[in-house]
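Tokens for chain A. Residues wanted.
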């Protein structure tokens, strides 16, 4: 598993989305790209988590933050998540290669059958990760989980972004 360090270039990232192609190299947010890797349609915790993010897209935008949620799900599963989870504002990426997930330092799990959501887990999928990347494509902040539980709350991320903007707070953890 590679380690992505703050103040260093983030790995390349490009993915198909439900509305076209998204690329970290092509986006130009005012302050940050918020990249949220989620487990997939099979994860009931992801359903709540990604739906929370979807509701906060306008607030993020007022702070100069563009958000995307990505998984290794197929396009069909991503579309089902989009529809079933009532996502209306969030860019939803799909077909994330497992090797790309590893480049970002994400943990990889093997499928274990049907989940409590009644959806079969894919053979391989990434565990959650949340990243803030500056417009110059350097990593600012990362949270990587080995389990679906205890993820950073997006309201706390909003408050942190406000603090970072107000105090011009530097990225930490670079050593």
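Reply:
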């Amino acid at each position: 598993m590679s380690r992505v360090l703050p103040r260093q270039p983030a790995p390349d990232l490009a993915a198909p989305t439900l509305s076209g192609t998204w690329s970290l190299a092509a986006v130009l947010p005012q302050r940050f790209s918020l990249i949220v890797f989620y487990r997939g349609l099979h994860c009931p915790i992801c359903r709540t988590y990604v739906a929370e993010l979807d509701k906060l897209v306008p607030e993020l935008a007022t702070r100069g933050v563009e958000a995307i949620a990505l998984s290794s799900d197929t396009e069909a599963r991503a579309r089902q998540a989009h529809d079933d989870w009532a996502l209306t504002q969030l860019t939803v990426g799909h077909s994330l290669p497992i090797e790309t997930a590893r480049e970002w330092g994400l943990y990889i799990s093997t499928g274990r059958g049907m989940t409590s959501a009644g959806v079969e887990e894919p053979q391989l999928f990434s565990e959650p990760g949340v990243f803030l990347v500056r417009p110059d494509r350097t990593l600012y902040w990362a949270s990587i989980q080995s389990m679906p539980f205890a993820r950073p709350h997006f309201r706390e991320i909003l408050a942190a972004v406000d603090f970072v903007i107000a105090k011009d707070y530097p990225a930490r953890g670079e050593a």
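The longest strand covers residues 32-37. DSSP finds four helices and nine strands in the chain.
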